[in-house]
Design a protein that fits this description.
By secondary structure, this protein is an all-alpha fold. It is built from 5 helices and no strands. The protein has helices spanning 8-31, 37-55, 68-74, 82-87, 113-134. The longest helix is centred in the first third of the chain and has 24 residues, at 8-31. It holds the Pfam family HEPN.
Length: 173
Amino acid sequence: MPSGSAPASLHVANSLRLADRDLKDAELLLREGSRNASYHLEQAAEKLLLALLTSEDIHVAVAETHRLDILADRLPEEHPLRDPMRKLAFLQAYATAFRYVKTAGRLPPPMPADKFSLASEALRKLIDGAARHFEVDLEAKDNVPAGKVERMRTTRTELAPVRAGDGDTRPRR
């Protein structure tokens, strides 16, 4: 959560940038056959939730960071991403137990490819939608804050995604 010296706009922007990077890393690792792809998928969801909660001025305790179910439930009822994020709470298992050998010495099975694909596609839409809402250039340097930190209350799917390259972080129609 934001410290007293760093504005929420910078925390929101950089949490979204980290979510975007974790999602890209997850997809890259999946193509390489790495079982760690699922972990980065969970991390993308976690960082997206941290951005959303920061915009709501909701503090997240360190003990809650991998608990996607708890984090999603802390979003206000009227938040448009609350339900989609709750549906992705299953990813939290890939942040903890999945990464360790089971008591019998076996490895937990990897996430099925179809489940990974659905979660990845959903996260891409959610991250891009949040970046549009908060006017965040996902490719900008880490000293570039969000254009706004207005709470999300409606979806804005009709807006084209903001991408790096032109320096313009305003949503486009």
